[in-house]
Amino acid sequence: MARLRSLRALDLEVALRAALAAVVPLMVLVALDRIDLAAYAAFGGMTAIFGRSEPYRTRLRTVTAAGAVQLGSIGAGILLSAAQAPLIVEAGVLAVVIAIVILVYNTLGVTPSGPLFAVFAVLVCAAQPVGDGSGWLRWGVAAAAAAFAWLLAMSGWLLRRAARTREEAIFKALPRRVPVRARAYADPRVWLNVVQNVLAALAAGGVAIALGIGHPYWAVVSAVAVIPPARAAHTVQRAWHRVIGTAVGVGVTALVLWPEPPIPVLIAVIALCQFGAEILVGRHYGAALVFVTPLALTVAHLAAPTPLPVLLGDRLVETVVGAVLGVAAVLLARRFVEHVPMPPPTAATPSIRPKERP
Which residues form the Integral membrane bound transporter domain (predicted)? Predict the structure, then answer.
């Protein structure tokens, strides 16, 4: 019984549906010999990581919003690629996406409320060539994956009713209540988070472009990954945990990709990484990034294979660039709130603490 409670505490239900949402669409693409569309399926499938531990009425709202955001971000990336938009336009779209995601997620109570997955989607999709009029096909793959992920996220509603008499023994409780915050736009913490993410993302992308290192999107993603959500504590310790987790994840990716395994093995790795990330994300985000990083790099490698030394070397340098700028954004936010106090916190909106906790 103690072991059962321990497994429930690890949130296996959430991890399993996230892994299925990542793997099943990829298996379909392999069967259709269209693994080149893997990135679109993967980003649509990320819809399933939202809504964890929420009652289904709440989850309907949050997962639907997350799915719409993912599809909107993917669509924006496809349009940028098809139009061969200049960097200044891509930077402007990125800033708008970050602002919209943070505002929408904080208003509707979506968790995680940061723009990481949307930023990753728009930039990677913008980097994929779309010159053959296949934009709608690519977006359709993402939409199908998002719909499947949405169904998985909501599937527990039926399963819990089918096993009502044993629900307490089989399923994890759903304790999280996430209220709608209609005036989130008036919360200065939210706008501080928008400014942090936009400045760090644009700075990381600019530095990566100036250095001429591969695709600059990984530096941007690394910067955004370091920055905590709008109402979380801005501590340097947490930021460095995320930096170390990302760097270790690059090393794990080297061990996975160096033997050049076949596609079925890579899909199994994606499933394992998605599962591990969901198990750890609520406990230690830095540890979760050890799984998130190889997950992201493996998906990118499936979509557009790159010589491994180039892939890992570029990503490691870009990770350092992005992480350093992300930490700088955390430090600047702490310094800002020391001089411009935030409104009194509530249970729903804890303050940004300027000092580390012991």
Answer: 205-328
Contact 64, 154 (CB under 8 A): no
Tell me the two tokens of residue 69.
């955001």
Q: Provide φ and ψ at 82, rounded to 5°.
A: -65, -35
Contact 198, 221 (CB under 8 A): no
The DSSP letter of residue 304 is S
Torsion of CA 123, 125, 127, 129, to 10 degrees: -160
Contact (CB, 8 A) for 331 and 227: no
pLDDT digits (tens, 9 = 90+) for 120-152: 999 999 988 887 788 999 999 999 999 999 999
State the first-to-last Cα distance of the chain, in angstroms, to the nearest integer: 34
Write the CA distances from 20 to 48, 78, 96, 311, 321, integer angstroms.
9, 25, 31, 27, 33
For residue 167, pLDDT over 60 is answered with no
For residue 67, what are the CA distances in angstroms to 63, 124, 275? Answer: 6, 17, 19
